[in-house]
Amino acid sequence: MNEHDPRYDAIIIGAGFAGMYMLKTLRDKGFRAHVYERGTDVGGTWYWNRYPGARCDIESLYYCYSFSEELQQEWQWTERYPSQPEILRYARHVADRFDLRRDISFETNVRAAAFDEQTGRWTVRTDDAEITARFLITAVGCLSATQTPDFPGIGTFRGESYHTGRWPHEEVDFTGKRVGVIGTGSSAIQAIPVIAGQAAQVTVFQRTAQFSIPAQNHPLSPDEQRRVKSDYARLRAEARMTQTGILAERLQRNATEVPAAEFKAELDRRWGIGGTTFTSTYPDTLRDPAANELSADYVRDKIREIVDDPATAELLCPHDHPIGTKRICVDTDYYATYNRDNVSLVDIRRTPISAITPGGLRVGGRDFEFDVIVFATGYDAMTGPLNRIDIRGAGGLRLREKWAEGPRTYLGLASAGFPNLFTITGPGSPSVLSNMIVSIEQHVEWIGEHLEHLRDNGFTRSEAAADAERTWGEHVNAVAAETLYPRAASWYMGANVPGKPRVFMPYIGGVGTYREHCREIADGGYRGFHLTA
Ligand code: NA7
Atom 28 in ligand 1: which residue has the minimum CA distance? Predict the structure, then answer.
């Protein structure tokens, strides 16, 4: 069977961690599936994000598949947090180990997909072919549609320019160069210390200061690795039922009820441990503004302690959003990097970048000259990767039109009017608020079982019901409203993309709760889905 064979059961878009596991799952269940991937290899996010210092903020031993005991035992991680090259090596290893590449077409862009009511199949259009399949599964990632601001003069710069999410495969040499970095999110915070170690001069343009917690990264000792691996099944099962899919020590008492000295001692300890679970210490941190302010103050004091120049330290102190409501950053030496002579910080909140110029960029009346500009300006998150494909459902309904006021899905897995379309880690699912691998495995396994259920019961069509979708959407909004998250102008809210509707996109009810809910729906014969032959 060649790749244009019309007898595919399923087409999967994307060969990152979601697409690879979806392929394997469907293959194991006897479905004929094929993957289209625009890169030259597997890896998704970790194929594209090759910027200096790129590293995952989830620990290695948990940022990997759990579906195969052999795989999780045999793969050896070298550091507490995996670097991009190591994650990419792991993805390639998985592709080889399960012989996935024979069902993946690389360097293939999916442009459009349309559901045909007559045949009950999807027609998928790539750059040079049309293929049909009963089911279409998107595994396009949540942070894969890069966002470059539409600055005046953007195309005029004569030097080198790179977006962190589309980094070239050849090494970029910063030696002796003047570098401008736009943005101070997770990507910038990882890249800046490394670039500063090479470049002649680095100028960082900051619109919003971010909270960052030290990674406290270190090599993984064989002992540490053995300890986790000897108890892997239990630890993984426990992680799946938590709020974020990440094991963390969570205290029962609220931050506001703890004496100040005890609070400080606990956060000192957590700062020493490092990583994203810093804000999971107390249950009220992301719910009560007063509790949140306590943790925010702690981090601001740390910044003032680390950064020598008081004016720079003040500029680096975030004040515009509660800590944790923008994805918290995890760094190695970020704040200390501003103590270097070759690094400076420019505030572009009040006076934004007015233009990119042939020589660099302009802020107000001031011109900056650069050899390299790094755009660490983020992504059109969650909906961007889906809306950039022209997806048309029943009756020609366009997904991006249906979602013009914000995404509407049932469980983040399906959308009414789009039969036989399934969206791995789609908006309305916990995805970006969790360990992505945990969320990916749960979605893939649910979709695999669902397709098996359809086949075994003679159904050829599955579509989310409009009322189930509405009820789910209301629930997603209601749980978000109980938290401080909607107070931040974050990419979770679509606030970083001009004109994007402000809707809190991920589901914050917790991966454990969500998993149980999906399980109950499946056990109840797929409540909220219309299944027909
Ligand atoms: P982020 O977190 O979206 O950060 C993008 C940064 O770029 C952020 O500091 C933005 O400031 C800044 N930005 C975006 N547009 C502009 C314009 N027009 N002018 C100036 N500055 C701008 O993306 P990352 O790649 O760092 O991280 C994405 C996720 O990957 C991260 O959350 C982790 O989950 C992993 P803003 O805050 O919008 O004012």
Answer: 378
Q: pLDDT tens digits for 343-368?
A: 999 999 999 999 999 999 999 999 99
Judge if the beta carbon of residue 149 lies within 6 A of ligand 1. yes
Q: Which domain holds residue 285?
A: 182-375
Ligand 1 pocket, 327 CB below 6 A?
Answer: yes
Tokens of 38: 């625009």
**Cβ(491) – ligand 1 distance below 6 Å:** yes
Model pLDDT for residues 426-440, shown as the tens digit of each residue: 999 999 999 999 999
CB of 184 closer than 6 A to ligand 1?
Answer: yes
ipTM of the complex: 0.99
Average pLDDT for the chain? 96
C-alpha span between 525 and 450 (Å, rounded): 10
Q: Are 162 and 140 in contact (CB under 8 A)?
A: no
Q: For a substitution probing ligand 1, which of 51, 81, 189, 377 has the most ligand atoms within 8 Å of its CB? A: 377
Rounded-to-integer distance, Cα 432 and Cα 434, Å: 5
Report the percentage of the chain scoring pLDDT > 90: 98
Q: From CA 104, how far away is CA 21, in angstroms rounded?
A: 12
Q: How many CB atoms lie within 10 A of CB 269?
A: 11
**205: closest CA among 333, 370, 398, 433?**
370
| 212 close to ligand 1 (CB < 6 Angstrom) | no
CATH number at residue 443: 3.50.50.60
Task: Please state the domain count of the chain.
Answer: 2
52 lines ligand 1 (CB under 6 A): no
Residues 125 and 197 in one domain: no
Determine the distance separating the centroid of ligand 1 and the alpha carbon of 512, expressed in angstroms.
29
What is the rounded distance in angstroms from the CA atom of residue 218 to the CA atom of residue 28?
Answer: 37
Residues 138 and 256 in one domain: no
Reported as a single tens digit per residue, the pLDDT across 402-428 is 999 999 999 999 999 999 999 999 999
Residue 7 pLDDT grade (very low, low, confident, very high; cuts 50, 70, 90): confident
User: Atom of ligand 1 at shortest distance to CA of 495?
Assistant: 38
User: Measured from the CB, is residue 348 less than 6 Å from ligand 1?
Assistant: yes
